[in-house]
Design brief:
Blueprint lengths: L5 H11 L11 H4 L7 H8 L7 E5 L6 H14 L7 E5 L10 H12 L8 E5 L7 H11 L4 E5 L3 H11 L4 E5 L5 H7 L3 H4 E4 L6 E4 L4 H14 L3 H5 L1 H4 L2 H22 L4 H13 L3 E4 H8 L3 H13 L3 E7 L11 E6 L3 H7 L9 H14 L7 E6 L2 E8 L6 E6 L5 H4 L5 H9 L4 E6 L4 E5 L2 E7 H12 L3
Parallel strand pairs: 1-4, 1-5, 2-3, 3-4, 9-11, 13-14, 14-16
Antiparallel strand pairs: 6-7, 8-10, 9-10, 11-12, 12-13, 15-16
Helix pairs in contact: 7-16, 10-17, 13-17, 15-16, 18-21
């Protein structure tokens, strides 16, 4: 049987790297796409060439990892890097089957006559398709300290597992999350219209324009339904067939391919059933016993499946504390959230502003913004015998509450503050001087028993948290 020749492979490499033979850079369709808010910190990390570590770009499927790699190529070209010193290859192309990283590097170096100590940028996309990639990459890093290696892949769980097992001291992880609400507004050209700058202070800060709360909420509902995936925002065709796009290209690929191949899962139907249950009930407090009874899956298997789903960036688990912000000795109950609200709507249909599910999805969206920020380590919820607080942020060093939030998609609590007794009790127990309540549209504040209770729309919280606390 005929084998693919070296010449054909080099021709394909040249096709995948058009900047070698053209001054135009990357393809115009990618160059014209808006940049994620995470592009700048990612580019700063790639540019740290004095650090002998590979950058591993992690994230769920379809959040724009390939796009950010190609935009990185363009940024390197724009700052004056020589085109022939930048190498991009997508490992999933069948023509590269059987070729290791070393061989691909040899072909690139031979094609351009590079020396071992040249400053080169090597971007390997979909690296999880290469067996034992982590060992090969570590060897290349040690052998070629002048080369800058950048890798990404869609099998996020596999990448994180292998990176942590074999890349200690050699790999730096960078997390690219689903599209955040502030990014979504920027992508659709609505951020400047809905938000302005407060220029009365010495340092301008973002502020909400109260007259636009209703329009902000309209975009927030759209974000819950379609906004977590860049391609969905770009493409009207995909938006019209969300269920098929998300189900087949994201959920099924992870549950039926990525996770079974990595962890040897045989009962993919059980895993699918568990995920569908979590997606429908996102934001609910659960126990292993309850999940086992509802799904018909053994508790030990449920525990492993939750580990897998979290490693694949499909869900977040949030720990519970008591009314005094103390951890429980045994973790018997916890909350489960989707990492991306549109996963639920794509499986079970879109939500409208007055649907019962809106409250859970608004809470899921707020948790998603925090889970991908520098506040994530202190994220908790509180529940005790007679009360609950939806969201608590702990100071990472002191493990003391700094913020307590009741999350609502309703204005009722602003009119009926007596319903906030549990939130106020928690604040008093933990000496908090402020309490926060999200609303659908109201912005106001009142003080009771020395505690300032601040009301503002949950959509504004989702926008401002990511805008002010983003951290990869």
């Amino acid at each position: 049987m005929l084998q693919v020749s070296e010449k054909e492979i080099k021709n394909r490499l040249a096709f995948d790297n058009p900047w070698w033979n053209s001054s135009e850079g990357i393809d115009s369709d990618v160059r014209n796409l808006p940049k994620r808010a995470y592009f700048r910190p990612f580019m700063e990390l790639v540019s740290q060439t004095d650090v002998n570590r590979a950058v591993i770009l992690l994230g769920p499927r379809r959040v724009g990892k390939t796009v950010i790699l190609k935009q990185t190529v363009q940024a390197l070209l724009d700052r004056g890097e020589q085109a022939e010193r930048i190498f991009y290859v997508s490992i999933d192309n069948p023509i590269y089957t059987g070729l290791g990283l070393e061989r691909l590097l040899e072909l690139f170096v031979d094609q351009h006559g590079h020396e071992k100590f040249s400053q080169l940028f090597l971007l390997f996309d979909e690296i999880q398709y290469l067996k034992d990639w982590e060992a090969h990459l570590k060897s290349l890093i040690d052998s070629y300290p002048q080369f800058r290696f950048v890798c990404s892949g869609s099998a996020a769980a596999a990448l994180r597992l292998k990176s942590q097992e074999s890349g200690a001291g050699r790999f730096t992880e960078f997390m690219l999350p689903p599209l955040m609400f502030s990014e979504y507004l920027s992508f659709i050209g609505q951020e400047d219209r809905l938000f302005g700058l407060n220029t009365e202070d010495d340092e301008p800060t973002i502020r909400l324009l109260p007259d636009d709360v209703e329009e902000l909420n309209q975009e927030f509902v759209r974000y819950l339904n379609i906004g977590g995936l860049p391609e969905v925002v770009y493409s009207k065709t995909i938006r019209q067939n969300m269920e098929r796009y998300v189900r087949e290209d994201i959920v099924d690929r992870v549950l039926l391919s990525d996770l079974p191949s990595l962890y040897g899962i045989a009962d993919t139907q059980g895993l699918n059933r568990l995920f569908a249950m979590i997606a429908y009930n996102t934001g609910s407090e659960v126990s292993l016993e309850g999940l086992s009874q509802a799904s018909g899956i053994a508790k030990n298997t449920i525990r492993r499946y939750l580990d897998y789903l979290e490693a694949a960036f499909l869900i977040h688990r949030v720990r519970r504390i008591d009314e005094n912000a103390k951890n429980f000795e045994r973790i018997t109950r916890f909350k489960l959230y989707l990492t991306n609200p549109c996963l639920r709507t794509s499986l079970f249909g879109p939500v409208n502003p007055d649907d019962e599910a809106m409250g859970r999805l608004a809470e899921t969206a707020l948790y998603a913004q925090i889970c991908y920020s520098r506040l994530r380590k202190g994220l908790r919820y509180a529940r005790w015998r007679n009360g609950e607080v939806d969201l608590v942020l702990l100071d990472a060093a002191r493990q003391k509450p700094e913020v307590a939030v009741e999350i609502k998609w309703s204005d009722r609590q602003a009119d009926q503050p007596e319903e906030l007794e549990q939130l106020l009790h928690f604040c008093k127990s933990n000496r908090l001087e402020e309490a926060y309540v999200t609303t659908r549209s109201k912005i106001e504040m009142f003080t009771t028993d020395g505690i300032a209770v601040r009301f503002s729309p949950v959509a504004y919280w989702c926008y401002s948290i990511n805008k002010q606390t983003m951290e990869p």
